[in-house]
Amino acid sequence: IHNIMTQYLPRDVDSILKQIVNHVEYTLARTKYNFDEQHAYQATAYSVRDRLIESWNDTQQYFTEKDVKRVYYLSMEFLMGRYLNNALLNLGIESQYQGALKKLGFDLDEVEHQERDPGLGNGGLGRLAACFMDSLATINYPAWGYGIRYKYGMFEQRISKEGYQIEIPDYWLTAGNPWEIERLDVKYPVRFYGEIKHNGKHYEWQGGEVVTAIAYDSPIPGYDTYNTLNLRLWSATPASEFDLDSFSRGDYYSAVASKEAAEKISSVLYPNDATEAGKELRLKQQHFFVSATLQDVVRRFKKKDRPLTELHTKVAIQLNDTHPTIGIAELMRIFMDHESMGWSAAWATTTKVFSYTNHTVLPEALERWSVDLVEKLLPRHMQIIYEINRRHLEEVVKKYPGDGDKLMRMSIIEEGFPKMVRMAVLAVVGSHHVNGVAAIHSGLVKSRLFPDFYKEQPDKFLNMTNGVTPRRWMQSANPALSEVISRWLETDEWVSNYELCRGLEQFVDSADMQREFREAKRTNKKRVAERIKKEFGVEVSTDAMFDIQVKRIHEYKRQLMNVLSIICRYNAIKRMTPAEKEECVPRVCIIGGKAAAGYVIAKHIIRLINGVSKVVNNDKDVGDLLKVFFMTNYNVTLAEDIIPANDISQHISTAGMEASGTSNMKFVMNGGLIIGTMDGANIEIREEIGNDNMFIFGLLEEEIDRARNELKYGGYQHTDSRLQEAMKQIEANKYCGKDVSEPLLKNLQPYNDYYLVTRDFSSYMDAQARVDEEYKNQTSWVKKTITSVARMGKFSSDRTIREYGEQIWNLEATPFVPSS
Ligand code: 26V
């Protein structure tokens, strides 16, 4: 494989060595006899980037020549993770770089660890965008990603010595970013505030404040293809032309200060994916990156002389959640106020360009902006939104005369105090397709979020079950298992064609394969055991079951239920006789994840976990049977390290609340089993790998409303004595102070237990008992993991992206063919 690359930059070890040393001398200006690991990383990254630039330029030129339809993936978040290893594997030159660095006295692995993890996202939504970029490139789809180049990414999490979360700003650019190209020539003005004038022909938006968006481009290599895509992130800088009236004349210093303020717009990622804060700066960020993007897209389209009414034949724009939805109004504004299109033509084209992905049904996360704020910040957009709504409601009235309730439900404007713009409704009205991210979730999008819209246009609503890239999450993160898979399949083509892994199933009874799967697992567990030793000073055995729950801390994800069950396990062990201890399966419980800085309950949960960890790990009675660790600063890099070490992972959200989950897929692909609820993609994973290979428990989505009411109105109270004991210990402040225990316990009272922790608890404990029992039979366990790995093909993001390409974007794969 990879012969497509051989005609370009030389790829033998000595040429690569020369390229690296060249960058040490001329890019970093160091002498070749004196450079450290960080310099080695920088020089290596630049040399890899050189290769990517060549293929990147060729690819973009090729797309332009062929005049292909492109998709633009608009996302406020791209959680890319480290670039170097991913680029080397996709280019198929890892071993050569290893060799070259070795000759220079460096270890590639160590050099790769010098790279900062660019954390320009919160969690699932941002990481999905990154997996999609990898698949788009690999499938040779003509695509670009567009987003914001935040100066401060997701905060770094630390834990105080008392066990509380502390947030440290993530200035990730301290050592520069060799993967980006600053394009000072690619820039657009973006306006805020100001007023609207009519000049007799069309509306004009004037005055206010103008900032300049500058493009930063990063190449996105595909696996085993020459095609290289682009991720364009915008950074805000002061506008060059200045408005003499906008700052007080004669006051030079405040004039400079008002310019400096421009840069605030792209300075920090909002580290909260739980509740919509309604902050003005956040809406500014949205309009800033969307406006720059649409100007860029329209300019590219207009290079060829043709009417803008045909934009949708060459452009598809995917809205990653409602965050870029202001783009619907912005494109209308560009069409009408800059390009002199009439409303009907502008609207017809706009709605053929946009499509919208919903990522959550949680009402508190649905974006709504106050009409006052939109009117002040984006006055022309507010006018346009009103007009979109007027025409939209006119249709509704025609069909349902006199149905005021329906009108209220379907309106883009929520009539309240204050009046709000519902961004999700705007996205549905302005898009040709709307999709959810797993089957159950797409069902809820239709039945709960937009039932009136679904009734009118059922074909508008689609399901696109999420996926993850096997390149990063298997090949790169888990070389030990990947090597086993490739050897048994006698090919490594499964890396870009996961379905080939079905071929593993025929060997499931082979003792050799079982042993090799277990050896790979042990390798991965050993690495994590070493990390634990280093960070906590605790020795753990790789024979213990590694039980992992890592994800953002949210009440609906129920980390609290996990820690309560750990307390019960601890209490049970304390009561065991020596003979019973002999039978007990040792567990290492790992929990990790960040709590939004203002999410008080989530932070209490972290404090409780740390308290339990301290008590359990220091109890001599427990020994090796139970160890509990809170892994700090969970991010893509940490995920790559620990996911391959999982025996079991937990995906235990209240049914109906986790739209999809994507780490569930990664954990199974890495040879672990799932304990989980019938929620999100768990349901489809079960469909693929079989009920015997999963530990399912808990209420079903259709049972939730009723159970919640029963709890609330006294129709149900749990009687689990284990849970009662655990709650009593918390109440007695055995694990944390009452600042933490009181609010947590209050949330577990029947009338407050919105997430049904107490209701699902017994069922969860039963499932945990089944996990322990099954783990005792190591042969049957490893067979389950082999079968599961073999059957996960559906969850490659390559499959997901093909579905988007065929059903929503109408795209064609365009592999680069060198012109002779
Ligand atoms: C919402 C908000 C609202 C407040 C301001 C900042 C902010 C940032 C992000 C979000 C989006 C939350 C939605 C989300 O992340 N959904 C997750 O999407 C994953 C990919 O589809 C999916 O696997 C997870 O189940 C879902 O929770």
How would you describe the overall organization of this protein?
It is a single chain. The two termini are 22 Å apart. The model has no long low-confidence stretch (mean pLDDT 96). Helix content is 47%, strand content 15%. Among the domains are: 67-81 and 117-431, Rossmann fold (3-Layer(aba) Sandwich); 541-778, Rossmann fold (3-Layer(aba) Sandwich). Strand 20, helix 25 and strand 21 form a beta-alpha-beta unit. The protein has 820 residues and is of the alpha/beta class. The chain is built from 32 helices and 22 strands. Residues 122-125, 128, 270, 272-273, 276-277, 321, 359-360, 365, 437, 466, 658-662, 680 line the site of ligand 26V. Keywords: Allosteric enzyme, Carbohydrate metabolism, Glycogen metabolism, Glycosyltransferase, Pyridoxal phosphate, Transferase. This is Alpha-1,4 glucan phosphorylase.
What is the count of helical runs? Answer: 32
What is the CATH topology assignment of the domain at 67-81 and 117-431?
Rossmann fold
Report the β-strand fraction as a percent range: 15-25%
SSE-based structural type: alpha/beta
**CA-based shape:** globular
- DSSP E strands, number: 22
Q: Overall mean pLDDT score?
A: 96
Cofactor: pyridoxal 5'-phosphate
InterPro entries: Glycg_phsphrylas (IPR011833), Glyco_trans_35 (IPR000811), Pyridoxal_P_attach_site (IPR035090)
EC number: 2.4.1.1
Protein name: Alpha-1,4 glucan phosphorylase
Give a brief description.
Among the domains are: 67-81 and 117-431, 3-Layer(aba) Sandwich (Rossmann fold); 541-778, Glycogen Phosphorylase B (Rossmann fold, 3-Layer(aba) Sandwich). It is built from 32 helices and 22 strands. Bound molecules: ligand 26V.
